[in-house]
C-alpha cells in the first residue's frame, strides 16, 4: 500500500498568492490550436454535425408518433 505523502506535490515558494497552482510551461494568451481558422473550421463542422443529428432525431420522433397514430387508426378500424 502507499502512503498519502506520495500524492503531495511540492509547489515553488515564489508563487504569487493569486495563482496557487503553477501553469504549464509557455502558458499565457497563446491559442491552443495551431491557428484560429483551424478552430473555426472544427467549430463549423461540429455545428453542421449537430444540426444533422438534430434533424435525424426529429425524423425519428415524427416517424414514431406517425406509427402510433396509424396503429390507433388500424385498431379503431378493426373494432368498427
List keywords for this structure.
mainly alpha; 80 residues; single chain; disordered N terminus
Mean pLDDT: 76
> Count the helices. How many?
1
User: What kind of assembly state do the chains in view correspond to?
Assistant: single chain
Shape summary: rod-shaped
Q: How widely separated are the two ends?
A: 75 Å
pLDDT under 50 segments (min length 5)?
A: 1-8
Helix content class: 55-70%
**Rg, please?**
29 Å
Count of distinct strands: 0
Sheet having the most strands: none
Order of helices and strands: H
Strand content: under 5%
Derived structural class: mainly alpha
Any overview of this molecule?
With 80 residues, this protein is mainly alpha-helical. It is 55% helix and 0% strand. The protein has one helix at 36-79. The model is unreliable at 1-8 (pLDDT under 50).
List the helices and strands and how they pair.
Blueprint: H1 36-79
What's this entry about, in short?
The chain is mainly α and 80 residues long. The chain has one helix at residues 36-79.
Amino acid at each position: 500500500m502507499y502512503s498519502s505523502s506520495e500524492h503531495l506535490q511540492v509547489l515553488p515558494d515564489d508563487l504569487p498568492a493569486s495563482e496557487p497552482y503553477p501553469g504549464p510551461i509557455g502558458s499565457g494568451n497563446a491559442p491552443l490550436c495551431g491557428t484560429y481558422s483551424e478552430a473555426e473550421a472544427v467549430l463549423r463542422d461540429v455545428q453542421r454535425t449537430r444540426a444533422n443529428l438534430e434533424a435525424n432525431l426529429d425524423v425519428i420522433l415524427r416517424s414514431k408518433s406517425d406509427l402510433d397514430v396509424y396503429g390507433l387508426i388500424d385498431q379503431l378500424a378493426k373494432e368498427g
